[in-house]
Amino acid sequence: MYQTNARVAKPGLLSQILSPSLKTREAIAAYIFLAPFLIFFSIFFVRAVILAVEYSFYDWRLLRPTRPYIGLENYIELFEDEVWWTAVQNTFVFTIMTVIGTTIVALAAAIAVTQPVRGQGFFRVLLYMPSLFSVGAVGLIWVWLLSTQFGVINYGLSFLGIRPINWLGDPDLVLPALSLTTIWWSFGFPMLILIAGLQGIPEQLYEAARIDGANGRQLLFNITLPLLRPAILFVTVTGVIAHFQVYGQTYIMTSGGPGRASYSVVYYLYQMAWVAFRMGYGAAVAVAIAVIMALLTTLQFLFISRRVEY
Amino acid sequence: MDRLRRSSFYKYFGVYLFLFVLGAMVLFPMVIAVSQSFMTNQEVNRWPPKVIPTEPTLDAYRQVLTQQDLRLDLWLRNSLFAASGHTLAVLALCAPAAYAFARLRFPGNKILFAFLLATIMLPSQVTLIPNYLLMRDLDWLDSFRALIFPGAANVFGVFLLRQFFMQIPQELEEAAVLDGASYFGRFRHVILPLSMNAIMALAIFVFLGHYNDLFWPLIVTSSLETRTLPVGLTILNQSYAGQYRPMILAGAVLSTLPILIVYIVFQRRIIKGVTMTGLAGR
Amino acid sequence: MFKRTVLSVLFVTILVAALALSFAVPGTEAQDATPAPTETPIVAEIGSGGTHISFWNGLTGSDGVTLNEMLARFAEENPDVSVTVEMIIWNTLYQKLQTAFVANDPPDVILLHASEIPMFGSFGVLRDLGDQYTSGGGWLPDDDISATTMDGMIWDGVIYGIPLDNHGRGLWINTDMFEAAGLSTDPADAPTTYEGWVELFQKLTLDANGNNALSPDFDPENVVQWGYTVGEWPNVNFIAGLYQEGGSFLSEDGTEVLVNSEAGIAALQKTVDLIYEYHVSPPAAGFDTWQGFGAGTVAVLPTGTWFLNQANLFTDINSRAWPNWQFGSQPAAWFGAHTFMIPAATEGEKLDAVLKMIQWVSENQIDWAASGQVPARLSAQAQLDPESYSSNILLGENFGAYGVQDPKSTVTQEMLAYLDAELSAALNGLKSPEDALNDAAERMQEALDRG
């Protein structure tokens, strides 16, 4: 996880200059460097999180003058709410599909644009372009593409003799359809990370392997992927964090429907906090989401830290 | 360039094929959006769908740009100002903190950093309501301060820059120490100049994220003077999607244009910056 | 290197051009004072008087433009007042209002739906407007507002609103399709039974081979023209259906949710059958009803008064308004009322200016008909010119005769959100009407009990 200190501690010019008093001075300097960040972080993050946890123990409607303390009741209600568990399940399915999808597309794209082909720069710009759109624009475009009767996708499929598919109205297809939209929108960032990772792999490794008679597939599986593992894991961790919070696409494209087939946990949170205006309950939902994400991320970090050191 | 010339088209046929197919899939929805922004309000509703407008018209752009009080120019300026201000704030807070974590020894370094990393997994919705109330108490509502400062202590920024700073050879700093440079001097004159690519990469990610942010600016701003572009466009979008599709798409195209240009100009530096953070491997 | 230079020059040029365009154009066009009809500015500054009032509403399309034109005239006649109108789409407006009230920074006047009066009224953030009505010594005759609309202005015995209009549901029909199917387009000939409506829709639903839904050769998998469509705003359609079957949303005392009564289940079953039994409507999701109507693939569109300008300006379709459908034993059509409310915090000069504005708009309500909606004041309704406002009159009479409104409760928005999700499940074939309504009623009852 952390190695710099070890390097600093090696006998070198720097450590010879350092005396115990310098050490104290270094620590003071460090705290001064950290202070502005930590002040802002405490005010806008730590404080807010603590308050959110506190709110979650109250029955708090935004405008109601009284705010009774109700202990764990918000959490009990949440655990007993089927809709919450539907949302959790949907979100997991969506996140898994989307993270796997984006990673594969981003990896393939990154490998392709780091080959010595013409138009590298053009494709790097083109493939990142969807990420520049706001979610509102993406939703607007894709609702229209995926529309059952008027969608260009179904129109194209009709030439192959395929009957109109109800992408956003079929409970089995709505999450894949949202996932497809999200992959299109967001594979640009992981692609950049993976391009960077690929450029960090020394060319000599490939040349040596080629001399040993390795073919393209062997190069991919024996050199590229193993050396790219830290980047791939970084991409999946940030992907899980980002996609688990899916909201805009659902809000704009399906309103959580059909039925609740695309209800996500953050959509649930917004419904409770900003439609029902139950801020206390909303805070409890936010805390629950945070706990799930913490578990997920910890699992991933455990998985990473065994082979990757940051 | 030489290597490119020598590379045979046939050898990389598969790569070209893949890039063209993927490129087409990526491009198609955007082409549709741009193309529809040149259609009339009636034409977008016709069936079968048209990809190329039969009578291309600039009406939608004219509407977006000239409609009284639909202040695209002002919103764009607001957005650029708020996003730039926020980006500067992030850099000003994160770069020194990252330097401390990467280069300085102090008690609690490891624990503090691990704690910060762990907070990445908390969804932003948790802080929404408390921070809204804080804005009210500070009397920051409907001001640019509310758009710029909350969220400026960006943990991802510290993480990315720390990874990058750790890659910079220790010897360079040691030389500065011999010249009697203070900690700040070393940060300012050794570390920062060597880190421009990484800082640029971070700046772009932060800028983009802020530029497209919706809910927070929506609830903390209420007047024309502080409204940002995505908020204006989303309201436009929700109100008119059924009717003025071309106009909304024209708005989306125009609002994406500035960041597209920024991205094209800085694309190489961004990738270089990310590469050298070691974030992506070694 | 050369390529890069060219590219850079190109980008800088585009950037400069885009900026120049965006900064220059609004300035030069500012003299062009008349915006095209039905475009609502998101924020409008009206007048230049010293007393400045801020006004939030959720009006879109022609509604917003019509109101802003009226306000411009008001500002002309009252040079001491200027108005900043901010248009925020309804859902977002409720959120923004809540936060604005919490922050103690509300606008000076708002236009909301009557159904929000219980929520905001119960929070104590609205001004009592009883003194504006003649019964309280004011200028607005109580009997110039229909009894049902008036009832919506009151919560806990206090009058919190001054209604602007009645807006509600009706049908828009594609007259060419009716004529092609040999059907009369006269509203007087509209069916009055479920069977009658089903037959009408069946005659108007065509497959790719030109067979209608009554034909034995009809291919329900390959419909190119739908007789009807259930997707637009299912919850208000359900409310109408519920009352048509003799049911009601809440019990008399407002403490019990009754949507899963036999009447409710029957109403929803009839709508679901239009999709899965008679194949005259597509499922709700994945079908944009306005686009469907505009593209000439829907014959009968259940929509509202607000569709008037959309029908005329944004489609190539020949159409006209029809009264709402009737699937049950009695007619019913949902309607709501756009209503002025004043936050309790508004006072002094601003309050006087706001009251003056509301009174002016109320007394000039006849002009509001241009938006397609029906003026709330009976005297204004009576003055409508039948030539230009046929749809307002046709639908307005219906609201007076058999209109039903949203339930009156402090948690109406929350209940409707739960109802929406369950209706979506039923209308997309995921749940039976009975299960959907039972599940909806359970959650809605919980919301109601929490209060």
Brief overview, please?
The complex is a heterotrimer of chains A (310), B (282) and C (451). Chain B is an all-alpha fold.
Describe this structure in words.
The complex is a heterotrimer of chains A (310), B (282) and C (451). Chain A is mainly α. Chain A has helices at 4-9, 13-17, 20-55, 73-80, 82-113, 120-128, 135-146, 152-158, 174-186, 188-199, 203-211, 216-243, 248-253, 265-275, 279-305. Chain A is flat. Chain B is mostly helical and 282 residues long. Chain B has a domain at 73-223 and 256-277: Orthogonal Bundle (MetI-like fold). Chain B is globular and about 70 Å long. By secondary structure, chain C is α+β, with helices and mostly antiparallel strands. Chain C is built from 16 helices and 16 strands. Chain C has a six-stranded mixed β-sheet, sandwiched between helices. In chain C, strand 2 (51-57), helix 2 (61-77) and strand 3 (81-87) form a beta-alpha-beta unit. Chain C is globular, with a radius of gyration of 24 Å. At the A-B interface, helix 1, helix 2, helix 3, helix 5 and helix 6 of A face helix 2, helix 4, helix 5, helix 6 and helix 8 of B.
Which architecture name of the largest domain in chain A does CATH use?
A: Orthogonal Bundle
CATH class categorisation of the largest domain in chain C: Alpha Beta
Task: List low-confidence stretches of chain A.
Answer: 1-11
- The helix content of chain A is over 70%
Highest-level CATH class of the largest domain in chain A = Mainly Alpha
Q: How confident overall, as mean pLDDT of chain A?
A: 86
Q: In percent terms, what proportion of residues of chain A is strand? A: under 5%
> What is the strand content of chain C?
5-15%
Based on CA atoms alone, the radius of gyration of chain C comes out at 24 Å
Label this structure with key terms:
heterotrimer, B: 282 residues, mainly alpha, MetI-like fold, 14 helices, 0% strand, disordered N terminus, C: alpha+beta, D-Maltodextrin-Binding Protein, domain 2, 6-stranded mixed β-sheet, 14% strand
List the helices and strands and how they pair.
The complex is a heterotrimer of chains A (310), B (282) and C (451).
Chain A: H1 4-9, H2 13-17, H3 20-55, H4 73-80, H5 82-113, H6 120-128, H7 135-146, H8 152-158, H9 174-186, H10 188-199, H11 203-211, H12 216-243, H13 248-253, H14 265-275, H15 279-305
Chain B: H1 2-6, H2 13-36, H3 59-66, H4 72-103, H5 109-119, H6 125-138, H7 144-148, H8 155-167, H9 170-178, H10 183-194, H11 196-211, H12 215-220, H13 229-240, H14 245-277
Chain C: H1 2-29, E1 43-46, E2 51-57, H2 61-77, E3 81-87, H3 90-102, E4 109-113, H4 117-122, H5 147-153, E5 154-155, E6 158-159, E7 162-163, E8 165-174, H6 175-180, H7 194-204, E9 206-207, E10 223-225, H8 234-244, H9 262-276, H10 289-294, E11 300-304, H11 307-313, E12 319-322, E13 333-336, E14 338-341, H12 348-363, E15 374-375, H13 378-382, H14 390-402, E16 403-404, H15 412-427, H16 433-450
Parallel strand pairs in C: 2-3, 2-4, 13-16
Antiparallel strand pairs in C: 1-3, 4-14, 5-6, 7-14, 8-11, 8-12, 8-13, 8-15, 9-10
